[in-house]
Design brief:
The protein is mostly beta strands and 888 residues long. The protein is 10% helix and 41% strand. The longest helix is centred in the N-terminal third of the chain and has 37 residues, at 2-38. The model is unreliable at 1-20, 667-677 and 791-798 (pLDDT under 50).
Length: 888
């Protein structure tokens, strides 16, 4: 009887344990399902017409927005943000683009005052801001300047008498040393200046700056007058000059389990942070070779090797430049788990969990193959031996990055490993047929496009095409970023990916072993199993169906909110056009789902519940997401003007023709601002975002003491500013400038109502180094007005209560791509056609039968032309195809 009782108790305990475990698994799956439903993954890709530009040119792009692993065109967000980021990390241009059924188009005009260098093109949606900015779209483009700059640099580090010096050779665009001049230099670390000074170049055009502990490896900024007496700025990244080759070791799954076969992955890097080929030996304490392997051209390799608990190991590497290095192997785990994945089978994926002796306890362990909580396969086995094997049929998975999670009975992760699965059904078949085998100059090229298979029920796809002249485009023709790498890799992997297009073959298939080595050496996007209960917390950034204007109503001159304030958003184009809303108990209000073009002005009005207007209104500024400057740092180049001299000069010749035909704005010359010994004093309460006094021109109260109105005082006294109909117009394009009165954006014609006696200072911002911080507000230049403080300088007449003028950033208008046609009597022709981008066609949409066509004309230059077509169909199948043809 006693034995029976013990048996029954044991049986009840086992049943209870299994029941509780089943409940835990069910709860975890429920949380994950809810998370997947509420938090879809949105990804972006931008196809640009090319990767290298000169100032004055235009970047043309198409945006593809998709959801999750299936890559279906997204209807989650209708707004996308595209930013051009300078070599120093400043956003010099931001575009807001409408996304309609997952696609959008846009362009960025490159102003003449841009500093030469490598820029980042970054894109994201508001929804994507809920995750790490590392998963935003980002690519590096090189921008040269031979229009307002005309100086090229060649930079290095030399040593004289045991002392290191930065050496910068400065030549004109023809290769001759520039005349002797003084150069201001500044070293920055992030946003902090760590060293600065002034040096003169010698008769050979060489600048030498001593390397110190403060400036070693920091970003160097140069500023000087070029031979045409224009202010020129240069940026030089000196970090690579003080780095050396390195090696990193990555055990599969993150752990080296002792007395077990482990797969070890390696990454070897040069001083610039790019891969370098190397031969690697894994040596025991007695210098016996435990394993050896040679890396690929990107510096990656992996090898299986038996690791003994009784041994110590070192890694010896010989790099391709004949330098060598030895490091210790990471710590060996004597008690724990490791994982081994085998994808060599075409049909199955095998995952083996390796356990130390003390972990062989017959407890259940789970394997989950999932992507951000979307579970594609789950199974369990008992930990009854040192090696537990799981297998899965590959065709159950789409193409993309997956996480293999090994979990204990409490659904706590033991070890994880990221893998890439390739499913050929994820590729969109595409045929491109040209109407001829080869073409002559100024010949019409007709391209027939067909996507999908004959058995597809619907064959509608959105595509974009760029055509380049490779002879002119030169060594920068290789496109390292493609729609395949953006949507299959970049949306899930962290950190710098060198040449991600390398892992995809021309037919859209993958280099499996090479790609697996990448995943073994890369961080990735994943969920935190230990924080399952917090996965479904509310998100901070909502998906935008339209633009939003968000702000707060406060009691006049106080911090207290005005609850339930009646708010109106009024268009200044039509005062009968307005939207009403009510603020909440904290005075916070939102006007959302708006669609309006950029540079449109609005009035925001407010009344309290009694109809009174004693209210201050504030509107939130857009907060740009943080930028990870290290992510693509290895792709950032120095000395861009020198590297692309021939292409820049050819582009300059072509674009001067566009200017003469009125198809492009004239070159913008930057006026030289003379800084006197005593700079005009600007009040500390100036609303200038650059800082008080950081402007192109300043007028003080003393300069404004002889006029009746402020408009009269300013007319004829501001450089590059003309007044028409009472409005301040920037002579660069004769566009209306933005007036900022004590931090409030107001209409230009208010100048005539302001008493000069009440004004403490006027600051004029015209150059991009001063206007870029204002984003779209600074597009046409700004005039910053600061009032005097005190009762006598009251300006209540000029700032109505309960009313605020705003110019929120709106949808950027798309410029038309100029397409020459060489037909009889055609007016769209060039006298000398030297185009680099031969054609840009962003709006290719196939019909139900999968077919469409487009055409363009070749230029006056012979050589090999390259057509690059990318896109996605309504089923989420991706395609990238490259077609070369000859012009003779």
């Amino acid at each position: 009887m006693k034995r029976l009782s013990i048996f029954l108790l044991t049986l009840i305990a086992c049943c209870t344990t299994h029941f509780l475990m089943a409940q835990q698994v069910e709860k975890a799956q429920e949380i994950l399902s809810e998370y997947v439903a509420k938090r879809p993954q949105e990804k972006l890709h931008l196809q640009t017409d090319r990767n290298f530009y000169g100032v004055g040119e235009t970047i043309w792009y198409k945006i593809y927005s998709v959801i999750g692993l299936e890559n279906k065109l997204s209807v989650l967000s209708n707004i996308g943000y595209v930013e051009l980021v300078s070599p120093t990390g400043k956003i010099v241009n931001q575009k807001i683009n409408g996304l309609f059924s997952g696609v959008g188009v846009g362009n960025i005009e490159l102003v003449d005052s841009l500093v030469e260098g490598s820029y980042r093109l970054r894109a994201y949606t508001n929804w994507m801001r809920n995750d790490d900015p590392d998963y935003f779209f980002e690519k590096v483009i090189n921008i040269g300047n031979v229009r307002s700059d005309n100086v090229e640099t060649k930079s290095t580090v030399i040593q004289e008498n045991g002392v290191d010096y930065y050496l910068v050779q400065l030549n004109n665009i023809n290769g001759a040393a520039i005349p002797k001049t003084s150069i201001n230099y500044e070293f920055i670390d992030g946003e902090k200046t760590v060293d600065k000074g002034r040096e003169s170049i010698d008769a050979n055009g060489q600048l030498k700056i001593k390397v110190t502990d403060k400036n070693r490896g920091k970003l160097l900024l140069l500023s000087f007058l070029n031979p045409e007496k224009r202010r020129v700025k240069k940026t030089i990244n000196t970090k690579a000059y003080f780095s050396e080759n390195s090696i990193q070791v990555f055990p599969e799954g993150g752990y080296i389990l002792g007395d077990e076969l482990n797969r070890m992955a390696f990454k070897t890097l040069n001083p610039q942070g790019k891969g370098i080929k190397a031969k690697i030996l894994l040596l025991t304490g007695s210098k016996d070779t435990a394993a050896q392997v040679e890396t690929n051209i990107l510096g990656m390799a992996s090898v299986p090797c038996y690791i003994s608990n009784a041994e110590s190991y070192t890694v010896h590497v010989k790099f391709d430049d004949n330098t060598e290095k030895t490091i210790n192997l990471p710590a060996i785990t004597k008690s724990g788990y490791s994982i081994s994945v085998n994808q060599s089978s075409a049909s199955k994926l095998f995952a083996q969990v390796n356990l130390s002796e003390d972990k062989v306890n017959n407890e259940e362990i789970y394997i989950a193959i999932q992507h951000l909580g979307n579970v594609f396969y789950i199974a369990k086995q008992k930990a009854s031996s040192k090696n537990v094997l799981f297998s899965l049929t590959k065709d159950r998975l789409p193409t993309g990055v997956f996480t293999i999670s090994i979990l204990n009975s409490n659904f706590t992760p033991l070890v994880e490993r990221v893998v890439f699965n390739f499913n050929r059904n994820s590729n969109l078949p595409l045929k491109l047929n040209l109407d001829k085998d080869s073409y002559g100059k100024r010949s019409k090229v007709t391209t027939q496009v067909e996507v999908g298979n004959t058995n597809d029920s619907i064959r509608i796809a959105s595509l974009s095409a760029s055509v380049l002249n490779l002879t002119k485009y030169g060594k920068d023709a290789k496109d390292e970023v493609s729609i395949l790498s953006s949507l299959y890799l970049n949306g899930d992997l962290k950190g710098y990916l060198e040449n991600p297009a390398y892992y995809f073959n021309e037919d859209g298939s993958i280099k499996e072993f090479e790609l697996d080595n990448l995943l073994l050496t890369q961080g990735w996007r994943k969920i935190d199993w230990k924080q399952l209960d917090s996965l479904n917390n509310p998100v901070k950034y909502e998906a935008e169906k339209g633009l939003r204007i968000v702000g707060q109503a406060k009691k006049l001159g106080r911090k207290a909110p005005v609850p339930n304030a009646q708010m109106q958003l009024i268009s200044t184009k039509n005062f009968m056009d307005y939207i009403d809303t009510t603020a909440n108990a904290e005075g916070e209000f939102v006007f959302d789902n708006l669609i309006f073009p950029d540079s449109v002005k609005f009035l925001v009005s407010a009344k309290d519940e009694k109809g009174k207007k004693n209210i201050d209104i504030s509107v939130e500024r857009f907060e740009n997401p943080p930028l990870n400057m290290a992510k693509n740092e290895p792709n950032m180049l120095n000395d861009v003007n020198a590297a692309f001299r021939e292409q820049l000069l050819a582009g300059k010749l072509f674009y001067s023709q566009l200017e003469n035909r009125g198809l492009m704005d004239k070159v913008t010359e930057i006026e030289e601002i003379v800084v006197r010994a005593e700079r005009p004093k600007v009040p500390e309460n100036s609303s200038n975002l650059n800082g008080p006094g950081r402007a192109d021109q300043i007028l003080t109260a003393d300069d404004l003491s002889t006029c009746t109105t402020l408009e009269m005082c300013l007319n004829g006294r501001l450089l590059g500013v003309m007044f028409q109909g009472g409005k301040a117009m920037n002579t660069r394009g004769m566009v209306e400038m933005q007036i900022v009165l004590d931090g409030m954006y107001v209409e230009s014609d208010m100048l005539s109502t302001i008493n000069p006696v009440d004004v403490a200072s006027v600051e004029v911002l015209r150059n991009i180094n001063h206007t870029s911080i204002y984003g779209s507000y600074g597009a046409n230049g700004l005039i910053i007005i600061t009032s005097k403080t005190g009762r006598d300088a009251s300006r209540s007449n000029f700032q109505p209560r309960g009313l605020l003028a705003i110019t929120p950033k709106g949808i950027s208008l798309m410029k038309e791509y100029y397409k020459p046609a060489y037909e009889v009597d055609s007016k769209t022709q060039f006298d000398q056609d030297l185009r680099t981008t031969i054609h840009w066609e962003p709006g290719i949409v196939t019909k139900q039968d999968g077919k469409t066509s487009f055409d363009f004309y070749t230029s006056d230059e012979i050589g090999t032309y390259r057509m690059i077509v990318e896109g996605v169909d309504i089923d989420g199948r991706l395609v990238r195809k490259v077609l070369d043809f000859e012009v003779k």
